[in-house]
Structure formats: structure tokens, C-alpha cells
Specification:
Length: 257
């Protein structure tokens, strides 16, 4: 697990699994943990990371309802979880899905956890909208298309965009169950001005990138999606795993996603 500082108020933790990112943001005396690392030892160290940085936890946020972004409750069992209204609706429609998918992952990879995943108190946040943190606010922007739900988070004073599973340097756009190409493209168009304004972009998977590189990846992703089901993968993202994702995208677009 890696921890990097982007700003005096922003830390990013990157998991060993799928380079999944977790962003820690402070505003005044409050702090939110956005998304999560994956493995138990990574989650266990999160409270120490906050303590060392002098951050005081106020709650958890998740960019969307995929299980690998919902594990903050395992590190902070009493914390409330804030999500977009679309994500709250998905969690309600799919009760227990995240916990089942986590158990399947753990069984496959021989991972032992002390406790099962329980999401506890979930707060639905209006998106687009704002979330107060200390004496300032986080901007919440709709980010669906990868899935049927989601939000991206703009940290204005730090010029950091937490993009969720978009604009990744390691993963091509993935149209998951419930997602759609049109919605994905619409999200990229909404994110584009934020990407251009950003000093740093935190993708859901992959290293933190600067705004210029993120803008180039965004253009590649728009071009890739626009040409589906034909076209080729971006040059830097053509490995075996990305070809599996591409095959799924082709199938879903042909089915009308």
C-alpha cells in the first residue's frame, strides 16, 4: 500500500489490489475517507494514517456501489457512509450484494477477514450538490455510465478531482452491468472542465495523474467509446485484462447498453 500527499489537506492511499485508490480529505476540523483500499492489512492501517496526519474522521464517502469502494466501514465500523442518491438506490435494490461479492473475492484469493462487511448507516446525498466539510464544501458531480450510479468529487481548494472509476491510466472504460456507453460519455463530458482545472486527478484505479495527462486519457476514452463495438484499445492499455474488459464492452454495446 502506498500513501502520497497531494496537498496539506489531501492524502491518497493506493491498494496492492487493482491499484484501487482511497482519498482522505480534510476541511477544518473534519475529515472524510473516500472509497477504500482492499486488503485487511491496508484497512487496518488507515486509522493510523489519519492519526499520524492529524486528521479527525467525520465520515465515509463512496464514489459508487461496487464492493471494492465500500470497505471503509471495515476500518471505521461506527462511521456513517455518504453516497449519491443513485448509489443509495442501487444499494437498496441489491441488498447484501457488496458483502457477497467481497466473500467471493476473499474465497478466490484466500483472504481472511475478522468481520463481514456491514454498510451500517447510509446517507443519500443529492448529486449534483455539495457536501459540507468543516467551513467549506466538496462539490459532488454525477458520474454514471461505468455503473448505473455514482459521483465524482471535486476538492476545489486543493484542485483535486476524485474521479471514481473514470479517467484511469491503467484501465480502459468498463461498461459494467447497469452502465451504458451514452451515460459514460456524458460523464466524461461533465468531468472534462474539472480535469482541465485539476492539479491532480485521482482515478478509482491507478496512480494519481496531473490534469494534462488526465485530459489526454479522457480524450482517448471518448474516442474508444465512440467507436464501440469497433475500434481498438488505447495503445498504453492493451494488456490481457483490458482485452477481457473490452470484450465485455463490445457485448454490452451490441446488446444496447
Amino acid at each position: 500500500m502506498r500513501v502520497v500527499g497531494l496537498h496539506s489537506d489531501v492524502l491518497v492511499v493506493t491498494s496492492r489490489m487493482w491499484q484501487t485508490t482511497c482519498t482522505i480529505v480534510r476541511g477544518g476540523d473534519e475529515c472524510f475517507v473516500i472509497d477504500s483500499p482492499v486488503f485487511p492489512d491496508e484497512l487496518e492501517v488507515l486509522p493510523a494514517v489519519l492519526e499520524h496526519a492529524g486528521f479527525h474522521l467525520s465520515g465515509l464517502l463512496a464514489t459508487h456501489a461496487d464492493w471494492d469502494h465500500l470497505l471503509g466501514r471495515l476500518a471505521f465500523p461506527s462511521a456513517a457512509l455518504g453516497v449519491a442518491e443513485t448509489t443509495a438506490a442501487r444499494l437498496t435494490a441489491e441488498p447484501g450484494a457488496a458483502a457477497r461479492e467481497l466473500r467471493a473475492f476473499d474465497d478466490e484469493h484466500y483472504v481472511a477477514r475478522a468481520t463481514p462487511l456491514s454498510l451500517g448507516q447510509v446517507q443519500a446525498l443529492p448529486v449534483p450538490g455539495h457536501c459540507e466539510i468543516g467551513d467549506t464544501e466538496l462539490e459532488l458531480h454525477p458520474a454514471d455510465g461505468h455503473t448505473a450510479d455514482g459521483m465524482a468529487i471535486w476538492i476545489d481548494w486543493a484542485r483535486v478531482l476524485v474521479a471514481g472509476d473514470y479517467v484511469s491510466p491503467v484501465e480502459v472504460p468498463m461498461i459494467s452491468e447497469g452502465g451504458s456507453r451514452d451515460a459514460y460519455l456524458a460523464t466524461l463530458r461533465r468531468l472534462e472542465p474539472l480535469v482541465h482545472a485539476a492539479a491532480h486527478v485521482v482515478p478509482g484505479h491507478g496512480e494519481v495523474i496531473d490534469g494534462a495527462r488526465a485530459a489526454a486519457i479522457l480524450r482517448e476514452d471518448v474516442n474508444y467509446l465512440a467507436k464501440l463495438p469497433d475500434g481498438e484499445l488505447p495503445m498504453a492499455r492493451r494488456g490481457a485484462a483490458q482485452r477481457v474488459i473490452h470484450a465485455g464492452n463490445v457485448r454490452r454495446v451490441r446488446e444496447g447498453a
